[in-house]
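Quick one: structure tokens for this chain, please?
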Amino acid sequence: MALPTECDLLIVGGGINGAGIARDAAGQGLSVVLCERDDLAAHTSSASSKLIHGGLRYLEYGELGLVRKALREREVLLRMAPHLIAPLSFVMPHAPGMRPAWMIRAGLFLYDHLARRELLAGSAAVDLRRHPAGAPLQPSCTRGFTYADGWVDDARLVLANAVDAHERGARILVGAACTALRRQVGGWEAELTGQTPHRLRARAVVNAAGPWAGNFARLAVGDHAPALRLVKGSHIVVPRLFEHDQAYILQQPDRRIVFALPFHGAFTLIGTTDTDYQGDPAAAAIDAAERAYLCAAVNRYFRRAIGEADIVHTFSGVRPLLDSGEDKAAALTRDYRLELDADGPPLLHVWGGKITTYRKLAEEALALLGPRLGLEPRAWTGAAPLPGGDTGAPGSIDPGADFAGFLDRTRARWPWLPAVLARQLAHRHGSRLARVLGDAASLAGLGAQIAPGLYERELAYMTAHEWARSADDVLWRRTKQGLFCSAAEAQAVARWLNEHQRAGMLTLHG
């Protein structure tokens, strides 16, 4: 397919904000091109704590507006993508000498009542000497609190938005860096560099480059960016520390909190850190001090101690946060700011943000850009399931409210799928699983198993419909099967992808 030479809206950056804006804009009839120099969700958007949450700890910093906005979004997103987002119950052990119990109760009361809830449970006090979640904890953890938020497959959430944008007419170009941008009469001229240079004319541009947003602003209009601080958040993955499916929120002596989450059945995900970062965000990696900090954070609470030898995987991401002058990175706001440069053809900068509020950010972006593009914006995304999200029973009024029922129907329709594989595929693809499996009538019909849980038919689908190009694209973003792979198996995935790429496919892959 020929690359476009003009569009209404060019979006630079294939993270959650860029993909969300592309979906909203394409759904309102604008011609959209999104360019991403690496892979979709290659950096910050795949390195989150995997939570859709209001941000309980932000209440402590007086961020009521941000918390309310995020709380309202939780259930909207749960209904849009129940295969990718699920309710998750949290247990907070009370730690004497840290936040007093009355303060936690007050915060949880606000958390329960700042926004309407239908799918998520309210908070409660629990006796950890009797509650199942108390069993893995130190004997000193005798009481605590529970509340609910949401778990998310962050990278696939980005992908789902990009797929929906594509199906509504947007062009999604991965491996395409915007290396030059010039304002002209009536529009922008952009140079996209992939395997071959390409020029594109756009009526408006969105700078959704995440931690590179300041750099891109300088490329586009000179020295123009608000005070941003790059903050690195790192996570570790260890073998499963507890058998139940609840998560923990653990207070620390420095007043930070650390999460311990169930992760893909066999593991526990622990994070995150907040440290100021300088350098290339693409090179961010956990350091020894962060590893030690996260292990110590868990060891304060759990009976089973962990150390460096227990860490099976790590990941780090860099968040571009608005600098509110706080000394500690943990105290910086997670809210976003949209700044429209309308000195000629419009350029919208996206500063900051968090995954939970990406959809509202996109709505606000279209509200700013729409009138300048001859569009009367409308709010539509909250009522439209993402691809794969219509998992309800046929005729259901609420198509995204019953993922457990969808999983049961999946097992009944394809009884030959092993239970673990059926769950993995259902979570990855939701109602689009039938497109992935096609006419397969047995496990053999999926082709060879190239790596644990990865068969040829799904790999072919990911390359044809999900822009997968490399082993990392598949093993760490479109799936998390890298957790279960040896180095040799990861190399087998890379070889398969190299051998089966479409003939003549350009690095500028649309």
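DSSP finds 13 helices and 20 strands in the chain.
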